[in-house]
Each structure stands twice: as C-alpha cells, then as structure tokens.
Amino acid sequence: MFEVIKTEGRARRGVFTCAHGTVQTPVFMNVGTQGAIKGAVSAHDLAEIGCQIELSNTYHLHLRPGDEVVRDLGGLHRFMDWKGPILTDSGGFQVFSLSGLRKITEEGVTFASHIDGRRIFMGPEESMRIQSHLGSDVAMAFDECVANPATYEYVKPSCERTYRWLVRCKEEHERLNAQPGAVNPHQMLFGINQGGTYPDLRVWHMDEIAKLDCDGYAIGGLAVGEETQVMYDIIDAVEPHMPADKPRYLMGVGTPSNIIEGVARGVDFFDCVMPARNARHAKLFTWEGAMNIKNEKYKLDERPIDPNCGCPACRSFSRAYLRHLFVAGEMLAMRLAVLHNLWFYNELTARIRQALDQGCFQAFRHMYSQKLDGRI
Predict the structure, then answer these.
(1) Which terms are listed as keywords in the entry (predicted)?
(2) Whole-prediction pTM value?
C-alpha cells in the first residue's frame, strides 16, 4: 500500500498504491471540489498536466448532485471520467467554514446549507456513507477543524471528540466496505490529527489515533490563521509520532515554499485550492517567482508565461495574449491560467521527487524554497 523507498533527512520518497493506481510521492493533489477543477478544467485535462491524484469534496457533492446520485451513476470515477486515484475530504473543513451556521455535539454537526439554508446533519457515520457512495480511493475521517487561535480549554475537548469520532469512522468504514455492492470495497481511511497550535495536544492526539492503525494520517487544522512558522513548529512536533510506514498528508497547504518545507519535515501528500484560485485572479507561478499577468508591462510581451514550462498555455500562447484575455474578461483566460498553475505544482513535486532520487533535495530546497514565494 505505501513504501518509503528513499529518505534524505526527514524528507521521504515513496510509492502509494490504491485501487485506481500508483502514486509517486511526495505528491500534490489537484483539487476538483465538485468533480471539476474551477476554471473549466476537466478530468481529461488533469491527465495531460501531470495530475496523479484528484481531490473532491464530500460536503459539496452531498449537496449537489447528491452522493446517492453519484453512487447510482457508478461512483465519482465514472461520473467525472477520471481513471486515477481520488481522495475525498470528510466535510469537516466546510463545517469549520460555516462556523456561524452550525451546532456541534457528540453525535456530529448540524449546520445550514450554504446553497438554500436547509438544515443538514453530518456525523462520522454520515461522512463515511457519503464517501462510500462516492467510491473514492481514500476517505478522510470526520473531524472538527478548529480556527487558530483558539483557547486550550476549547481545543482539548475538541480533539478528544475528534478521536472518538475517528473510532466511529473506522467502525462504519469497515462495515461499509464489507457491504455487497460497495462502489469501492477497497476504499482506504486516513485519520486526521488535530490539536490547534498546542504541541502537547497535537502529540497526545497523534499517539492515540496512531493506535487505531488507519491506512494513513493527515495533519489538519493548520494554515487557518496561524503564522507560517507556527505551522512548521507543529509539523516538527507531530511528525516523530506519525507511523513511519504510513503516508502523511498535510491538509490544505499551501504555497510552493510550504510544500518544499513540508517535504523537508517528512510530509508525503499535499493539497490546496491556492494554485487554481490564484490563477483565476491572474496570479501565476513560475520558476522565478509569482507574477500578475494583468500588469501593463506584459502588454507587448511575446514570451510564454514561463520559458521553462511545458503546460498547454506556455506551449502555445504569449504573456501578451493571456493578459489580453484577462483584461477582456474572456473565460479562456482562467482556463489557461489554471492549467499553467496546476502544471507548475505537479512539476514542482516531480522535481522534488527527482531531487530525492538523486540525493540532492537539500540543495533544491536551498535554491527554491524562498525564491518561489517571491514575486517577479
């Protein structure tokens, strides 16, 4: 299922195998929230730009078109025509983002739909059933993502409850996989570490969930308000307590530098809406730093976005053309920009893997960690 084939310091080069294929790690998961990448990018496009594993959202697909609809149409792979691995998040982060419209109890969370306001209940069992209907390769456990900063008095009972929810998730997940007609009877379950910005709670929680022998483990509840160095400090505290033979996933992170620094701290999986979201607002990533393609200086620039990029936009179009598309409000601008940024993130993790294979990751980190978060 997961094999670490090489290390450099705490950085790991691995191979993850699941029902729909093999993933080379470290890896960036391309975020297709509702079964599609925002910016008019399809599953077929993902294959062209080097995506290994796609991530979709339990909460959103539960609302539209409905997880039972997806199940009846053969599961999410068939529905969106994606042949590779899929990870589905549990809905916990969306519940976090609806903080003004929710009520949390031991049973689960009652909240209002952001679409029509109807009341919805989701607990560990409901999250597992939705993800089972979707048929993803990896289901994430239902958890509470706590905003940072939060008081110790709030975070402690919250992460204790998240532990109890994981126990329930695991039991329901195993039951669902054993059901006749399960969309993906080989679906895996990843547990999620919580504990806010308190190292002692993070370590306690990681030690406890590690005993449950999940298929992988994520660090959640970071990049939600804390300073970047605090995030790195929490990873440093948790990583020694994460099972070495299981994949490690840093949820919702982040910038190119965050990914490089996360790899240096032993993380294998990453996801973030940032590359696609920034692209839709004309912020593009290159190997020389980020650029705003709407700037006047690109009006007559005939060069590609990045001369070192092989994405569909850079192969065929100039900076001047892409700038024109954004200024004119053409939808093609967003599509080409999203394809470019996702290509860049997929290429970034490919180059990280190459550096680990060659034993020169630290040199790669030294060269690019700060540079890639700068601006041209």
Answers:
(1) Glycosyltransferase, Metal-binding, Queuosine biosynthesis, Transferase, tRNA processing, Zinc
(2) 0.97
